[in-house]
Amino acid sequence: MVKERVTVVDIAHAAGVSKSTVSLVLQGSSLVNEVTRAKVNATIRELGYVYNRSAANLRQSKSKIIGIVVNDLTNSFFAELAVGVDTVVQSAGFVQFLANTNEKIERQREVVASMREHGVSGLIISPARGTEAADLAPLVDSGIPVVLVVRDIADAGVSSLTSDNHAGAMAAVRHLIERGHRRIAFLGGFHDTAVFEARMRGYREALLEAGLDAAEALVIGSAPSRAGGVTAIEQAMMLSDRPTAALCFNDAVAFGVCDGLRARRLEPGADFAVIGFDDVIEAKTAVPALTTVSVDPQGMGQRAAELLLKQINAGKAEAEAIIGSVRLVVRQSCGAAIERRTREALS
Amino acid sequence: MVKERVTVVDIAHAAGVSKSTVSLVLQGSSLVNEVTRAKVNATIRELGYVYNRSAANLRQSKSKIIGIVVNDLTNSFFAELAVGVDTVVQSAGFVQFLANTNEKIERQREVVASMREHGVSGLIISPARGTEAADLAPLVDSGIPVVLVVRDIADAGVSSLTSDNHAGAMAAVRHLIERGHRRIAFLGGFHDTAVFEARMRGYREALLEAGLDAAEALVIGSAPSRAGGVTAIEQAMMLSDRPTAALCFNDAVAFGVCDGLRARRLEPGADFAVIGFDDVIEAKTAVPALTTVSVDPQGMGQRAAELLLKQINAGKAEAEAIIGSVRLVVRQSCGAAIERRTREALS
């Protein structure tokens, strides 16, 4: 079934050029003129030659692969992030390989090792929960350019691109307070992540500056997923002094909160104010359209890719920590002003 | 910044074994006893040795990578499919690299070529729109095991794993007819895909066997996304003789149809019956929970991975075409019986 392998010599012979010229074309060298390059490339396509990248990598210690490692592929935030990375690396002539760790540090170790073994030019990593600087040390020591996205890791010694989660959460809660809400919940997310900690801190500070009580009972963690949002709002609605609004850990949780409200015959936006975090594609088309703190996952992917390419081209990894600004996008789901309280009939 | 490279000789010296023993451990050979293997592995970790997979691939022509190439990563169906593949390849000691083509044949050519160059052991591909057998010929000729998923390609000469889209669509439309619906729309999807064609055929046959008219106007294509669903239902509701129910191309479209209905103050499940296709995770927790034809994306990913591993282990690619069965999962979104017609106030 396997065809006999076409060699560089076959190409040179068919194209009527030297073997070195074919090699230069394969390496993308600028020493070969356009006409010759076109002729060689046409012959390569015609004969079906496959460039042996493994051998080339050994010779050049350089591939045209960018690796991206994400912690939860089922969250559309990360799919959108990867699509953003792809648009940039593609125009730079790279191919992106993605791997999913499903929040498992051991799997992260395996996929990172595998990507290193395959000679990726650089890595973009959204680390699994609980990843520590020591887990990344072998990778960092190897000198391969690395950009951490979404979750930063203290003292990792590599570049990171995160969002101003603290400021975003403050803006969202201030908006809810301006609309008259006094009992505002923080729903969803895992307590042990830096992202959770920063959003929570923003939530608390906005409450404190308005002289409001940040009651422990109003902070309800859950998986950062749609199903987690359903669970969190169910728990919130069982409190004796119910909230009238919520800032959710992310958009997935916010959609679940909307689902859970509807299951109780409460209309999100009319009977209860909901704000998400991320601004995934679906936030705009959902009904009600989701008010959310825009992190712009595709844009974040693009910026991460640009940062990584800069380091790859510079040939060394100068660590930079970039904190991207965020903005509150007011749509319909936060429309519940306080006078339209949770309907008594359903209390 | 780059540490001096640790060699096999360094490992052998530190662990007090021969160089050949270290090599055998690196190759996962069963000739080395447990105690020695553990000692060598501990030394490898301690010294931070990185196995040079490029060199190993050249020697062994074998990697431990499975490539998966999908056509639209922003559709959660494909993220779930990839997660299913991952669970199986992981237990078989492989790592999965994913690439997204965004429905572009040229990008598909690039990522497939790149994966071949990196010596993947096998490929799972959900082909981009318009892919023809000729596009896959170089890959097929190379003898690398390939499994097509979701979309089959006639005469491609490789294994495929698809779903019984025809039977699924028939079951869904029969269910709507049993509930009394006579004006049933088919919403969303691109006309030029085999999946669309099969689902459409099932839709038409179910209408014909019930003596109903399959009016052209009731078939409204759109992007197979949530936003596409919003557009399609808007168009359907402008018809003079409106439908009362719809089979949607996939779950993403169905969610968009629900959004579009709500934007018109129609309650999906109460005022209009909606059935999706795929059964993504979110179908169960949505409100109303989505009635859908279950394709079970994670299960499909698992079966595709098993099929591919079987071919990798057999050392040759015997083409098999597997058509997985599907089943209608009745939840709430199809609850609108015909007597609860579209409310007059909103006509």
From TrEMBL, chains A, B:
Pfam families: LacI, Peripla_BP_3. GO terms for molecular function: DNA-binding transcription factor activity; transcription cis-regulatory region binding. Residues 6-60 form the HTH lacI-type domain. InterPro entries: HTH_LacI, LacI/GalR-like_sensor, Lambda_DNA-bd_dom_sf, Peripla_BP_I. It comes from Ensifer canadensis. PROSITE patterns: HTH_LACI_1 (PS00356), HTH_LACI_2 (PS50932). Coiled coil: none annotated. It comes from the Bacteria. Keywords: DNA-binding, Repressor, Transcription, Transcription regulation. This is Substrate-binding domain-containing protein.
